[in-house]
Design brief:
The complex is a heterotrimer of chains A (298), B (124) and C (227). Chain A has 298 residues and is α/β, with parallel strands linked by helices. Chain A folds into 2 domains: 3-216, Rossmann fold (3-Layer(aba) Sandwich); 219-276, Alpha-Beta Plaits (2-Layer Sandwich). In chain A, 35% of the residues lie in helices and 30% in strands. Chain A contains 12 helices and 13 strands. The radius of gyration of chain A is 22 Å and the shape is globular. In chain B, 62% of the residues lie in helices and 8% in strands. Chain B contains 5 helices and 3 strands, in the order αβααββαα. Chain B has helices at 11-24, 37-44, 48-60, 78-104, 109-123; strands at 33-34, 64-67, 71-74. Chain B has a 3-stranded antiparallel sheet, with helices on one face. In chain B, helix 1 crosses helix 3 (48-60) and helix 2 (37-44) crosses helix 3. The longest helix of chain B has 27 residues, at 78-104. Chain C has helices at residues 2-12, 15-39, 50-73, 78-110, 129-182, 185-195, 200-223, and strands spanning 44-45, 116-117. Chain C is mainly α. In chain C, helix 2 (15-39) packs antiparallel against helix 3, helix 4 packs antiparallel against helix 7 (200-223) and helix 5 packs across helix 7 (200-223). Classes of the chains: A alpha/beta (298), B mainly alpha (124), C mainly alpha (227). Chains A and C meet through strand 5 and helix 3 of A and helix 1, helix 2, helix 3 and helix 4 of C.
Chain lengths: 298, 124, 227
């Protein structure tokens, strides 16, 4: 396996708060990753550290086998598009593209201009005057056209409508197929991107609570709905990640696939079985305040 | 058929199922070329690795085969084999459950055959 | 080298900030003074030239605010950013100094027809053209890099860090002044200045190491500054 990012025990503390707590994971070459979690979970801080824009308090961080800090062998291969990316006030869209073409060694000019057409961006307009959605489109274009071996998108589509977001997914997949590279999509909007992902890492309160192949996760949790007592009895001994009740009815969601025997049992108890989508799973795992760490050992 | 993949089941399984359906209903004839992994990925907006996994599943089962440098093709005899599998599956899923349910209700096999005939005539 | 060139290119894309605004500001100051000089009987000498120097200080501050988060956000190495920025500032000061030197030379010959001293100013403009160029260059570069340093302090230590820095500077100055005063040093300094009067070009030379120190200090600050 070709590891492009290796993180071991990474911790970032601010004065009175731990933003990232003992995080370990790795990214392999040419996969599309989802870095998921709620706002403020620590995703952005982790990405800032991977790209040497913030400094770890402790722990080990290697990108392409080296420390990324002030290291051009690493930095020239990274592109990090963040929601809060700043552009000089006097820059026009064309200036951003022009400068980006000199920053990113793999820049594809034609692709960049094709994307400009796709997103209907006014080349001569000053970035400062762009709408939120257009500003997001600028970031997306730089991220895609950079063709950086590790490209990170952090909440890249703020203000973009459904059509533009669909366009982003289309172009991303097309270009990824032709030019495979490691892509990290960080977002709290999981439903739209989940199908693009090959691997999912979920961050909650600064910790990794899930690190798993996306396909493994689909169908990994189940929900039973029925009489509260029976539903609870059925779920007993399983790792429950969500509970809802209404009158005597309850819906209990837990980790683990159900085999034929389980299904028969549920049927006998008069319980209905509902599938749990990847998004629902992540929402449940990150919603509860108590740590769901044990849920992760699949 | 919906374009959307169901996010609560492995997508590669769903890809394989869709290809199987297309072979069974003739949309993908035997010895015809199957869309590439990237075409599947773009069409369904899914990860290419996932699409490849679905296609490879069918290659392993001998439903599809690979021609070097050209692509994937539907194997000769694939349709018949899939039909056979589906029939087996139909038997397990519908017939066996139907009979066990019928037993609960005290329906005899003869009555059941009658019911099937009646159902068929209504279907026409 | 390539990366440093990219940083220079990044700065040059801000045409308004580097090529238009400084001359608009200086130009308007010049036009106003030209108007005054046209009505005045006697020779008018003005400090309007200072406007471009002050613009440099502000420009140094602003350029970091504008470009540092952009460049480092797009994974530019900090060291390359600092070197590229300082190179841009040096190049810009060199070219602006040529313009000022030439305008000074024209002024010396013509007085713009209204006897105005705007670019060619007594003490500052003593010496040959090269000396005059060196004076302009030294002051402008010092202003730019000084502004850059102030901005770097802010970037690294925030608002409070800046206050602390300026309080520290004024404390040091007070102590120095106090020590000079208590040791009757002012007389000695005055005597030295009278016996060895430095030319403006020499002062500019003395300024240069300070500018270099500013540059290094900025680098040290930004090395560990987050985005």
């Amino acid at each position: 396996m070709n590891k492009v990012v290796e993180i071991n025990g990474l911790t970032k503390k601010y004065k009175d708060q731990i933003a990232v707590n003992n995080v370990s994971f790795m990214l392999e070459a040419n996969k599309i990753y989802g870095l998921l979690g709620r706002n403020g979970a620590g995703k952005t801080t982790i990405m800032h550290m991977i790209t040497a824009q913030a400094f770890p308090t402790s722990g080990e961080l290697k990108v392409f086998g080296e420390n990324p800090y002030e290291n051009n062998r690493v930095l020239t291969q990274l592109c990090f598009i963040k929601e809060s990316q700043k552009y000089p006030d006097n820059y026009r869209v064309i200036d951003v593209l022009d400068v980006s073409s000199t920053f990113f060694p793999n820049w594809d000019r034609e692709f960049a201009f094709a994307l400009i057409e796709d997103f209907r961006l006014p080349l001569k307009r000053r970035v400062k005057k762009l709408s939120r959605g257009m500003l997001s489109a600028v970031g997306i274009i730089v991220g895609l056209a950079s063709r950086a071996p590790v490209t990170i998108f952090d909440e890249p589509y703020l203000g973009l409508d459904a059509v533009a977001r669909g366009l982003f997914y289309d172009r991303l997949l097309d270009d990824y197929a032709e030019n495979p590279r490691t892509i990290v999509l960080s977002t709290h909007l999981i439903d739209e991107v989940s199908k693009l992902l090959e691997h999912v890492i979920v961050i909650n309160s600064g910790e990794v609570i899930l690190n798993e192949d996306a396909e493994e996760l689909r169908g990994q949790a189940s929900t039973v709905v029925g009489a509260a007592a029976k539903a609870e009895a059925f779920a007993m001994g399983r790792t429950i990640i969500h509970r809802e009740s209404m009158g005597g009815l309850a819906s209990v969601t837990f980790m683990g696939r159900l085999d034929a025997e389980d299904r028969r049992q549920a049927e006998e108890l008069g319980l209905e079985i509902a599938p749990v989508s990847l998004q629902q799973l992540v929402v449940h795992l990150t919603k509860s305040n108590h740590k769901n760490k044990e849920a992760v050992s699949l | 058929m919906s374009l959307q993949m169901d996010d609560s089941r492995p997508i590669f399984v769903q890809i394989a199922e869709r290809i199987e359906n297309d072979i069974i209903d003739g949309a993908m004839p035997e010895e015809s070329q199957v869309p590439s992994t990237n075409q599947f990925a773009a069409f369904y907006q899914i990860n290419p690795a996932t699409a490849a996994k679905g296609v490879n599943l069918l290659v392993d089962l001998g439903i599809l085969y690979k021609r070097r440098g050209i692509g994937m093709f539907v194997a000769t005899g694939a349709k018949a084999r899939l039909m056979e599998q589906r029939k087996e599956h139909f038997f397990e899923q519908y017939v066996v459950t139907m009979i066990s349910e019928a037993k609960k209700l005290g329906i005899t096999v003869d009555q059941l055959t009658d019911m099937i005939r009646r159902g068929e005539s209504r279907h026409e | 080298m390539n990366r440093i060139r990219s940083v220079v290119h990044m700065h040059m894309k801000d045409r308004l900030g580097w090529f238009i605004l400084p001359w608009v500001i200086l130009g308007s100051s010049f036009v106003v003074n030209l108007g005054i000089a046209a009505y005045a009987e006697e020779t008018i000498t003005t400090g309007g030239l200072a406007s471009i120097y002050i613009y440099m200080l502000v420009g140094g501050i602003v350029s970091l605010v504008q470009t540092y988060p952009f460049a480092v956000g797009f994974t530019m190495r900090r060291k390359d950013y600092v070197i590229g920025t300082l190179a841009t500032m040096a190049g810009f000061s060199a070219y602006s100094a040529i313009v000022l030197m030439l305008l000074g030379a024209i002024e010396k010959e013509t007085g713009w027809g209204v006897d105005l001293n705007f670019f060619h100013l007594g003490y500052l403009s003593e010496g040959n053209l090269l000396a005059q160029w060196w004076v302009h260059f030294g002051i402008m570069l010092n202003m730019l890099v000084g502004g850059f340093l102030i901005s770097s302090i802010h970037r690294k230590f925030g608002k409070n860090g800046m206050f602390a820095f300026f309080i520290g500077i004024s404390l040091i100055l007070s102590v120095v002044i106090f020590l000079v005063s208590t040791n009757d040093g002012w007389d000695a300094i005055g005597r030295w200045l009278r016996d060895n009067p430095p030319t403006a070009a020499e002062l500019s030379t003395y300024l240069f190491p300070l500018t270099v120190i500013f540059g290094f200090a900025s680098h040290l600050l930004l090395r560990k500054a987050a985005v």
